[in-house]
Amino acid sequence: MARQASSDRQTQWLRGVLDLAVLATLSQCGRSYGYALLQELGNVGVDLKGGTLYPLLARLEQDGLVETEWAPGEGGPGRKWFTITQNGRQVLRDGTYGWTEFAGRISAILPATTTRGDRDESCA
Amino acid sequence: MNHAHDAAVTEYLQTLEVHLRLRDVPGERIGQIVAEVSTHLADTGENPVETFGSPATYAEAYLAASQQGRSSSWRGPWWAARFVAFVAGMWLLRAYGLDVQTWPISTTLTWGTIAYLVVLGLVGALVSRWLLRPWAERQASHSPTASVAIPPRALVLGGLATVMVGPMLVPQRGNTLGVGAQLAPSGPVWSLALLGVVLTLGAVWTEVRSAKVLDPRTDA
Predict the structure, then answer these.
(1) Is B147:B21 a contact under the CB 8 Å cutoff?
(2) Among B37, B209, B28, B216, which residue's Cα sits nearest to residue B11?
(3) Which chain B positions have a beta carbon within 8 Å of A74's beta carbon?
(4) Which of B44, B64, B69 lies nearest to residue A62, judging by beta carbons?
(5) Which pTM value belongs to this model?
(6) Best B51, B71, B214, B215 residue to mutate vs chain A (most A CBs within 10 Å)
(7) CA of A34: which chain B residue's CA is closest?
(8) DSSP state of B69
């Protein structure tokens, strides 16, 4: 039950920053394709399904944050390759700054809440 | 991967194509979405429904996620434009092309006539989309592989019905709807019949091209 609740919470957190996570991964990889991106994200504990990733990539493409090209893979079938654009890098920089600031504020609250709760003191 | 998995993937991709088509996604875009799913499933060997959800769910999710770019992933406006062209072409053929005895007579095309045909075509397009939707779904469920023929057939069916029924419901007043400004110099009737042929065939041809699914991996 607790594990399920934790998983649901992480899904909600991820929803707000998934585009940044994908842009960041693309920024590090240079050029990548859907399955490789899923693996990269999975390696850092962000487990996604194709049904979530590909529509997101389509939105990033339509927003001009990534460019795409169909080209043959290594010994495999032709596949869609994604590259982050200058706009995408700018959005990644802005988003990273915003997320860091936001996460910092929340992190500052969370331990304080615990200690205050322990001491049963008022915030006022 | 085994034969059962391949069969399941094939069926999934065909059904996905149908659901994208029923949501007015252009054939070129359908080809890209289906190829993306196909490549992923070939890479991973995953179960398509577990990875992407049902074909209907995935088609809906994909379009919802890329909603901002609706103009590039939705062919509604182009469908309406082709429908108007088809209706105008058929109307011209019906008015001028069928009665060869009138051919030597000079005639003119007015802005009023054009406005009437555009309104008739747009109303016909909206009504046809609504009325033909159940028919398209039945056709697609009977034969997913033949779903590529649905949009052109819907255009012809809806267009013909509009030309036959529309003028009865909304008759054109006089020849100009009160707007008599001449669009072009008077010319022989056969020129309007020829214009009708060009508009009709052009609309059907572009609809067939738009519906055709192109696989970006092979450009075929």
Answers:
(1) yes
(2) B37
(3) none
(4) B69
(5) 0.76
(6) B51
(7) B40
(8) G
User: How far from B56 is each of B14, B22, B60, B70, CA to CA, in Å?
Assistant: 11, 10, 6, 18
What pLDDT was estimated at residue B177?
A: 44
Tokens of B171: 């008759």
CA-based nearest distance B28→chain A, Å: 13
Distance of residue A116 Cα from the nearest chain B Cα, in angstroms? 42
Between A124 and B212, residue with greater pLDDT: B212
Chain B neighbors of A49, CB-CB under 8 A: 50-52
Instruction: Provide residues of A within 8 Å CB-CB of chain B.
Output: 33-35, 49-51, 54-56, 58-59, 61-63, 70, 76-80
The most confident of the ranges A26-30, A64-68, B74-78, B107-111 is A64-68
Binned at pLDDT 50, 70 and 90, residue A30 comes out as confident
Cα B204 from Cα B62, distance rounded (Å): 28
A65 falls in which pLDDT band (50, 70, 90)?
very high
CA distance B108 to B182: 7
Task: For residue range B144-188, list pLDDT tens digits in order.
Answer: 777 778 888 888 988 988 888 877 776 665 554 444 555 555 566
The chain A residue lying nearest B29, using CA atoms, is A58
| DSSP state for residue B110 in the 8-state scheme | B
